[in-house]
Amino acid sequence: MDQLEINKVSFMKIIYSVLTIIILFSCSKKDNSKKLFFDTKSNINLKKEDSKNTVLNVNSDDSMLYDKNVLRAKAGKKIILTLNHTGKLPKNIMGHNLVLLKMNVDVNVFSKLALEFKNNDYIPLNEDFIAHTKMLGGGESDTISFTINEPGEYKYVCTFPGHYQMMQGVLIIY
Ligand code: CU
Predict the structure, then answer these.
(1) What local confidence, expressed as pLDDT, does residue 160 receive?
(2) Could you tell me the distance, in angstroms and rounded to a whole number, from the CA of residue 12 to the centre of ligand 1?
(3) How many Å lie between the centroid of ligand 1 and the Cα of residue 91?
């Protein structure tokens, strides 16, 4: 009988130790989920900060087109614009940029002038534009940021030779 009692006691001890381990393990798991929750929260905060800006994405490809010809953004709000070249052709054959012109600048006149500025990636040395991306080859991207305070329509264009008639759009500031 004594031997049996001892066995019972040691059995209970084992049960208690196993329970303790399980409780400790689940506590540490809870800690991890708290950490995950915190990280998610801070990501949400980052997104909120991003929403103070207008984020615009334009894709261009080997078929010499922008995927968007109309963009919209609020006046006075910072605009973060990314141009992606999703094609494969190199910059010297199928280069794309995005040049955002000042209001009332003639896009055709500007683009013809741009041909004379090959050494400057086809960006005229004048003040007719608000911002421009780099000239991109396939697989490249460039992001620019700027703010426009005056509502209206602003043309954008790719100034690579032969592209401006196909690659134009308008940014509407409201
Ligand atoms: Cu182009």
Answers:
(1) 98
(2) 78
(3) 9
Residues 6+ apart with CB under 8 A from 53: 77, 78, 79, 80, 145
Distance (Å) from CA 168 to ligand 1 centroid: 9
Question: What is the predicted pLDDT for the residue at 32?
Answer: 40
14-24: per-residue pLDDT in tens?
A: 445 544 444 44
Alpha carbon separation from 118 to 36, 73, 83, 97 (Å, rounded):
51, 31, 20, 13
pTM of the model: 0.72
Ligand 1 centre to CA of 121 (Å) is 12
Rounded to the nearest angstrom, the distance between the alpha carbon of 97 and the centre of ligand 1 is 6
